[in-house]
Amino acid sequence: MKNPNLARLVLGLFSLILISCSSAFEEVGGIDGDTSGEGPSLEETVFTDVSYGTHPQQKFDIYLPSERSSLKTKVILLVHGGGWIEGDKENMSPFIDLIKEHHPDHAIVNMNYVLAGISPAVTPAFPDQFLDIDAVVKKITAEKEQYQVLPQFGLIGTSAGAHLSLMYDFVYDQEDLVKFVVDIVGPTDFTDPYFSENPNFQLALSLFVDQDQYPEGTDYAKAVSPVFNVSSSSSPVALFYGEQDPLVPLSNGIALEEVLSTYEIEHSFTVYEGGHGDDWSAEDLEDIQEQISLFIELHLPVNK
């Protein structure tokens, strides 16, 4: 952003920059290097920086397990944080290591999306970033035979990536391909006083929302807030929040938990001491790993 004052405004209000929420997880190894070749094989394979659109940031990496099959190999999709304006799929690498160790029969897709910005022109986040997830899901689904995967997905998002994942499931997953969402410190309610009482909120929101893609008269704060988009068809959600999070107030987690309960959506809700994930204890990090693993086994099992 070349306009420092406006950049500070956006960063100050939507300051959900990824604070090592994922990097705090234990790294347990992974695939070294790329494997190229024509078509899928039954060997463990990774393709990096696969394009799913024309923008240079519309790329994903896909990790394919050995002995995979379009009849059984389900997909875990990772969505990084960074306040919608920063971050990279590389931030989610520890989750790849975790999944590969405990769920070696799943495919993993680690995606980038087009980041919002104001220079050289305004690039809004919403709904474009929701639609980027949709484009990845549709590409994987269309190419399931090439990759030898079964297009059923679990979404794991951190911070802004958790917000995007929740919104994708609640609003855009019309074919019910998403079977669960893991929400790690994701913002869920932009009508929360933490956001709405900031005097610059409306200006910042106007920069993040492409108003041409919403009906006239839309309440944008509600339209892009997961708590106002839950329905009876929403997928199970695992929620993880910090008790003293200075970036995403705990009230956002509580609000989503209450709405999920109202709609009788299966979910879990865990609150840890500390803030936005960077200061969670080793015991808490171990607990979240175990809970994510159980959520995968329960809602996205691979039948051998």
TrEMBL record:
<dbReference type="InterPro" id="IPR049492">
    <property type="entry name" value="BD-FAE-like_dom"/>
</dbReference>
<feature type="domain" description="BD-FAE-like">
    <location>
        <begin position="61"/>
        <end position="259"/>
    </location>
</feature>
<dbReference type="Pfam" id="PF20434">
    <property type="entry name" value="BD-FAE"/>
</dbReference>
<keyword id="KW-0732">Signal</keyword>
<dbReference type="InterPro" id="IPR029058">
    <property type="entry name" value="AB_hydrolase_fold"/>
</dbReference>
<feature type="signal peptide">
    <location>
        <begin position="1"/>
        <end position="24"/>
    </location>
</feature>
<protein>
    <submittedName>
        <fullName>Acetyl esterase/lipase</fullName>
    </submittedName>
</protein>
<dbReference type="InterPro" id="IPR050300">
    <property type="entry name" value="GDXG_lipolytic_enzyme"/>
</dbReference>
<keyword id="KW-0378">Hydrolase</keyword>
<dbReference type="GO" id="GO:0016787">
    <property type="term" value="F:hydrolase activity"/>
</dbReference>
